[in-house]
Design goal:
about 300 residues; alpha/beta; Anaerobic Ribonucleotide-triphosphate Reductase Large Chain; 4-stranded antiparallel β-sheet; 10 helices; about 15% strand; disordered N terminus; disordered C terminus; binds zinc ion
């Protein structure tokens, strides 16, 4: 518990989890600004420098928070609902996979170069977070959902003529839009090789079209144990009929109640259901491309 107080199974309901502040590093930009000689040490060095800066920023934020509390401006803290000493200063990452793609490294489950890349990027953050821990200051690292930031980072990088493979940076270790990435690949890519340095969590979202059987879920959970994927969710989108208001607990192309096809879908965005129509525009496009697997048998084939 002392090393890793984030509760993976409960997410936000863990032991006094939560961040005081998150400052997110655009990994794609960092990688492309690093002088790459084909090895990974330059990327690690660039990351060490960046983490120093991010830590300074977060410590400054922490100092401001203390001042505000002393001035009586943070009643939630004073009432004891939140304890600042138990909250994290969080280093976020975004554009992780895009950074690999910019180096020509395929984000595949069995690509050893991708594992090396992950360690080069993440280990310096993990080590700095451990090194800088002190009384009342705890650090962690999280692959942030970046609902809006993923879009902004992509457009800022495009303006700088950097390599930008998609309009919204992916928030996973795998290409969320790629139908060839099956459920087992996802578990491997969120397994111990990739997430052991991410102590703030990085949920593996397993998107499914429909609910599986008890046996199928059990098989997937066993596979998760084998890969070391300790933080995962199953997402089955809800279908909301805008004509009659009926909500179906799976993804459908037609309302089962009134037969209407004016439909909206609700999907999970880290901990809560959100209507896709309420996503930011570029994220809506990305959500449409998200691949929902039909079940384990179908997953070995690219499906429609
Ligand atoms: Zn309906």
């Amino acid at each position: 518990m002392q090393d890793n107080t984030f509760s993976y199974t409960l997410g936000a309901g863990g032991v006094a989890t939560g961040s005081k502040c998150v400052m997110t590093i655009n990994v794609n930009r960092l990688v492309q600004n690093a002088i790459w000689d084909g090895g990974m040490s330059d990327i690690s060095m660039e990351m060490e420098v960046m983490v120093e800066k991010v830590h300074k920023y977060l410590l400054a934020f922490n100092a401001i928070l203390k001042e505000r509390q002393a001035a009586g401006l943070l009643p939630v803290y004073d009432a004891g609902f939140v304890t600042p000493e138990k909250q994290y200063l969080t280093v976020g990452i975004n554009g992780f996979m895009e950074g690999a793609e910019s180096l020509g490294i395929e984000p595949d489950a069995d690509n050893p170069d991708y594992v090396k890349y992950a360690q080069a990027v993440l280990k310096p953050i993990y080590e700095a977070n451990r090194r800088d821990r002190s009384d009342g200051v705890m650090w962690n690292c999280e692959m942030v959902p970046a609902e809006n930031l993923g879009v902004k980072n992509a457009s800022w990088d495009k303006a700088e003529k950097l390599y930008v493979p998609r309009d919204c940076y992916n928030s996973y270790f795998f290409r969320v839009e790629d139908p060839k990435v099956n459920v087992l690949d996802k578990l491997k890519l969120h397994g111990r090789d990739f997430t052991r340095y991410l102590d703030g969590g990085s949920a593996c979202h397993i998107n499914l079209d429909e609910h599986l059987t008890r046996e199928q879920y059990a098989l997937l959970l066993r596979a998760a144990i084998r890969t070391g994927c300790n933080y995962l969710t199953f997402n089955v989108p809800n279908t909301l009929c805008r004509s009659c208001g009926y909500i179906s607990k799976q993804r459908l192309d037609r309302c089962p109640k009134c037969g209407g096809n004016d439909l909206d879908y609700a999907t999970r965005v880290i901990g809560y259901l959100k209507l896709i129509s309420r996503f930011a525009e570029a994220r809506q496009e990305e959500a449409q491309r998200r691949h929902y697997s039909k079940g384990m048998e179908d997953d070995h084939e690219p499906s429609d």
